[in-house]
Amino acid sequence: MKTIVIGAALAAFATAASAHVTLETREAPVGASYKAVFKVPHGCKGAPTNVVRVKIPEGVIGVKPMPKPGWKLETVTGKYARAYPYYHGVTLTEGVTEVVWSGGELPDAFYDEFVLQGFLTKDLNTEAPLYFPVVQECPGGAAARWIEIPAAGAPASELEAPAPALKLLPAR
């Protein structure tokens, strides 16, 4: 009987751990372009996902999302906290702060990916992960909010709904 209980507990943990929205590439150097592929493993407790929102963290600039067939693509723009040097001597003071894919349908039984490209500024802190909060919305007001960010020094593994995290590496 103990074996069955342990096996069931491990299976439940594996399911919960794999249920989070995650990044395909989980580390990248600062001062370089980064392609963020958000892996969305399911809908909302049986309902299909019909909106995916990604909050762009400060220090990620020049964001360009990839369109998805069957989904409407919107961006929210705003001022950055400061000016950032970009390519070819250009300085950016505002840009995309949120990306929203909507109107499509990701059934609960399926998996999909949502992609954007951005530039990781050189002054990002390589001593701490960079978090991209993601919200999945479903019909009837249901939502899965992958927005939790651990306190400094605390493990993200203890959170119920951790935001996708990117380990920042020193510039090359």
From TrEMBL:
What residues does the YncI copper-binding domain cover? 20-168
Q: Where is the signal peptide?
A: 1-19
Which UniProt keywords are present, listed alphabetically? Signal
Q: Does the keyword Metal-binding apply?
A: no
* Keyword flag ATP-binding: no
> Which chain positions lie within coiled-coil regions?
none
Q: One short Pfam family name for this protein?
A: DUF1775
What is the name of this protein? YcnI family protein
Species, as recorded? Methylopila henanensis
